[in-house]
Amino acid sequence: MTEIPKEEYLFKCTSACAGCSSSLVLRYVLKAAGPDTVLVMPACCTSVIQGIYPNTAMNVPIYNVAFAAAAACASGMSAAFRAEKKATNVIVYAGDGGTVDIGIQALSGAFERRTDFLYICYDNEAYGNTGMQRSGATPTGARTTTTPGGKPDTKKDIDRIVEAHDPPYMATACSAYPQDLFKKVTKALSIRGPKFIHVLAPCPPGWRYPTEQTVEMGKLAVKTGMWVLFEREYGKVTINGPSRAAMIKPLPVEDYLGPQGRFKGISRESVDALVSLARKNAKRLSLQEDGTC
Amino acid sequence: MLTIATGNKAVASAVKQVSPDVIAAYPITPQTEIVEQIAEYVTNGELKSQYIPVESEHSAMAACIGASVTGARTFTATSSHGLLYMHEMVNWAAGGRLPIVMANVNRAIGPGWNIWAEHTDSMQERDTGWLQVYVSTVQEAYDTTLMAFRIAEHDDVLLPVMVNLDGFSLSHINQSLETVDLGDFVPPLRLPHAIDVKNPRGYGPLTGPDEYFKFRWDIERSMRDSCKVIESTEQEFSRCFNRSYGFTDDYQVEDADVVIVSMGTLGKEAEVAIDLLRKEGIRAGSMRIRWFRPFPKLDLASRDVVVIDRDYSFGYGGILADAVRSKCRAEPYSVIAGLGGQEVTYDDIAGFIRGRRPGEESWFGVTSDV
Lengths: 293, 370
Known about the structure:
Number of helices of chain A: 12
Strand content of chain B: 15-25%
Number of domains of chain B: 2
Distance between the termini of chain B: 49 Å
Number of strands of chain A: 8
Helix content of chain B: 25-40%
Radius of gyration of chain B: 20 Å
CATH superfamily of the largest domain in chain B: Thiamin diphosphate (ThDP)-binding fold, Pyr/PP domains
Shape of chain A: globular
Largest sheet of chain A: 8 strands, mixed
Number of strands of chain B: 16
CATH class of chain A: Alpha Beta
Oligomer: heterodimer
Number of helices of chain B: 11
Order of helices and strands of chain B: EHEHEHEHHEHEHEEEHEEHEEEHEHE
Largest sheet of chain B: 7 strands, mixed
Distance between the termini of chain A: 32 Å
CATH topology of the largest domain in chain B: Rossmann fold
Strand content of chain A: 5-15%
Structural class of chain A: alpha/beta
CATH topology of chain A: Rossmann fold
Helix content of chain A: 25-40%
């Protein structure tokens, strides 16, 4: 078992929603990163969760910045720290909207320029902070406040977009697997250059499931094969244990979709589209892991 | 050292001497020569800055912001659409109290594509909390860029400064340039609110109305305090290097019956027009506004005022004319001229003064059939 430090950098009693899994994610990210860390944060749920001036819910500096600007801001910050010979971790902590939609240009630029930083996208598959509007990361069929009939389009595959930049390290993770997340953040921060971790973060009010099921929902995403845990280290892909098991014997996708209000009344076609996309991704990752692709 | 340089190269030369820790920039005509020259300095080792070739102007300002909040000295340069594209971050830099220095090479805004001089780009950043200065010669571009760092980084200011120079008519013309041995004219930056991991703070979190209001007032308080800092910096510059400018560059204003107010290179052109008019027996003077923010106190009482605006606020009027009207209680003759690089000669400017109609507005070159 990985020893997770007892030190807390995310304090209790934040203004997060009950059952918020992104707070769990941040808690383990900061435990892995330690005190010599600055968070760069675009507009996202954590803009609210961190508290209201003059209070802060975190024991590391947070630089809040405009929605589209996080990765570029981190570029400047990292350059300034490195010029001063400081090894301070610069971590962007951004939601899916701030990553796959409005922030994608800055993200691409920072990765192309080999910025030494870690970009973490916590993905609750919609604009949570503003009341669950669809984002590019919303999956097919999910009802949001701007797709009341279910999203007709496919979830944008940000991992393949980031992969095209060939970063030295990238991974997916899920809030329900904190040990795996902790290890990935630790590993990412030991590598110089641009790193990316894409974390699935189930959202009780947005996905419409009972708050106490937030860990279970993450586990179901992985066990049904709808979310694949993998790492890509210097080009070498490894599918992580829980997803490896799910590829051999996945739980029925209905186990994951059923408890979520956002998928209520989802069409057969949309379910099929979700399953076929998940299978296609799993197959591609398996081939990459084997080195045949 | 006496040399020949373009306005752009003069800015780059000043930046090299001030040696920012981080420079982030994106190319746009007619600013390109500044960033090319800086990249050259960095590549050949004359300048030790971290140079970040960002993918957009929005990111240029964002990168400067991220660097600046660590306590680093930062610089960027842009023009026109680039400035407008970074608008959101221009606001962020001032609100974050970050002493970033930016050169803006004034250029018109499309459509249609027009790369020539106009001030409407920087005027659209008028209310962002940046100090704005407009220069008219290569020497002034160099001197003012040096001063801009000292002013922005002063404890009583801690606001960003935008140095504006006219596209092509200054950015690309060659004039003599006397560079200085800077010494300690620009002291090291000590940002009081620099990020410190040993004293973790939240920067720019959710802020309620009462606190937000105080932060806004604090910007204005510093903007007002910056007047003294500008004054003392100009005095110190004059003492060290024997050149002085002031809030306005006045030419034969003292005994003038009519004063023409303008900014940028047209202000230099106006001085030639004044010489011409004086020969005709017209007691005219020129007042070239250098610092537009903070806006200076102008003494224009009991004389005619003509204002040239190289900008426009549609449905309202010339932006400089508006400032003169409201701050100086003058009824200027407002001339809109030079938009999109329209040629305006000293003869034309003399004509504006001869044919002035106080209280009215005129678009130079526009006839009823246009």
